[in-house]
Amino acid sequence: MTEIFHYTFMQNALIAGILVSFAAGIVGSLIVVNRLVFLTGGIAHSSYGGIGMALYFGLPIFLGASLFSVGAALLIAVLTFRRRHRSDTYIGLIWAVGMAIGVIFTDLTPGYNTDLMSYLFGSILAVSREDLWFMGFLLLLVLLTVHRWYRPILAMSYDAEYAELRGIPTRRFYTLILVLSALTVVVAIKVVGLILVIALMTIPTHIAERCTRSFYAMMIFSGILASLFTLVGLMLSYAYDLSSGASIILVAAAGLGLFEGGRTLIAGRS
Length: 270
Description:
With about 270 residues, the protein is mostly helical. It has a single domain, classed as Orthogonal Bundle (ABC transporter involved in vitamin B12 uptake, BtuC). Helices cover about 80% and strands about 0% of the residues. The protein has 13 helices and no strands. Helix 1 packs antiparallel against helix 10 and helix 2 runs parallel beside helix 5.
């Protein structure tokens, strides 16, 4: 099994898995605590519009998907900040329109021959050095953002009304979290695909939330778990010639099942 580390594409895949997993763990903690999972799911699926436009205009996929996803995140922030109870309507609309735009531009792309499955379910084995630089930059941006504004983000995440009374610009941080979610979704598409990306951002966070006592520890532990799930899933996909994205998510789901089963067993004995 150790021979997989001798291949350049596997080395890139392993590095990408760690970079994206830590970004997903940190940002996933933000979206779970702020109850933004459904909103982030809408951003993830609408990002296909950016992929289709990038293909049509001959732009880098990451650039097109990033610009479109950030635009969708800003629109969602404007529409839902004061109207969380109506957010499902807006998310459903943006979700569907984004996907439709992606399909139309893909159909219009001359000589189109790119494998759609790689965007829907991930293609971590095709990660390039340029992709790694983008992923590394995103992780650095996430770390710097959380470090710089940790206290106001923490206050808004657990009591937005109190934070607003204290003068914290909650709308600004709400928008910031959605933008970071959009960028994280874009890089995670390369690892597990846009259909499975929310699972990577929420399953490790769900476990970490119950194993830690602070928000900071939750983010770090979530990143570690996401990295572990990604590496194990990647090795299994290589060993048995399976889809890497689906393997990673099934490993994460198995980890969640073992965790919940262990908690239930312990609770039953106590």
